[in-house]
Amino acid sequence: MSGVRVWVMMIVTAMVIVGCSAKAPPRGNEADALHHSLRLGYGYLENGQYSVALEKFERALELDRQSSEAYLGMAETYARLAQYEKADVNYRRAIALAKSAGAAHNNYGAFLCAQGKLRAAESEFLAAIADPAYSTPAFAYTNAAVCLRKLPDLSKARAYLDQATRADPRFAPAWFELSSLAMEQGRTAMARDHLERYHQLVAPNRESLKLAYRIESALGNTEIAGRLAARLKKDYGDDVFLP
């Protein structure tokens, strides 16, 4: 199995920011300042400016000590800084304070999975799915599957991916993971079918082209595999010599 892909949903929209705190959020200018700090924090986080992101999340907490989103932002930032104990503490605070903790459970599960705490991660993903207000269970089902492939528990991983595609047939990552899993299990034709579904939803990318190359090579389609190898070389500079 190639590198583990865990799908983390960042909370950046005003609707989510307003709606998830366990108590009533600040109002008026204070609420605007809170939203602004959170937006800036997540923006800096995504840009890799971690020290500035922490400053913005700390400012958000000065405005609202009960802000689940601020603690979640702190957790994500500390995780990327490899300060794992601080990350863990802040994930737990985010979950405890959230009115709807599905997204926080999903992200905490992704963190635990990356730490190799696979069963604990699965529990967090299931907690996300169990939250009736969590609107994207396909994220958590797919993450649970990716995590269980590391055990490995391929049968249960497949079941979670099937649930992901039922929850949201247009959630492309689930189709990619189904294709990758089928390839791992030697179900090459099925892997191709799943990857075709993936490419109906998103444009081919480096990882999906590599998987397509492996599939076509395994099926003996040397001409197609050659075209895929040429595209990988042209678009990404990759020399692909896979069986």
Structure in words:
72% of the residues lie in helices and 0% in strands. It has 243 residues and is mainly alpha-helical. The protein has three domains: 33-98, Alpha Horseshoe (Serine Threonine Protein Phosphatase 5, Tetratricopeptide repeat); 109-168, no CATH class; 170-242.
> What are the segments in which pLDDT stays under 50 over at least 5 consecutive residues?
9-24
Biggest sheet details: none
Task: Name the helicity range.
Answer: over 70%
Radius of gyration: 20 Å
Please write out the topology.
Elements: H1 14-19, H2 28-46, H3 50-63, H4 68-80, H5 84-97, H6 102-114, H7 118-130, H8 137-149, H9 154-167, H10 172-184, H11 188-201, H12 206-218, H13 222-236
Helix pairs in contact: 2-3, 2-4, 3-4, 4-5, 5-6, 6-7, 6-8, 7-8, 8-9, 8-10, 9-10, 10-11, 11-12, 12-13
Write a brief caption for the model.
72% of the residues lie in helices and 0% in strands. It is built from 13 helices and no strands.
Descriptive tags:
13 helices, 3 domains, Serine Threonine Protein Phosphatase 5, Tetratricopeptide repeat, single chain, mainly alpha, 243 residues
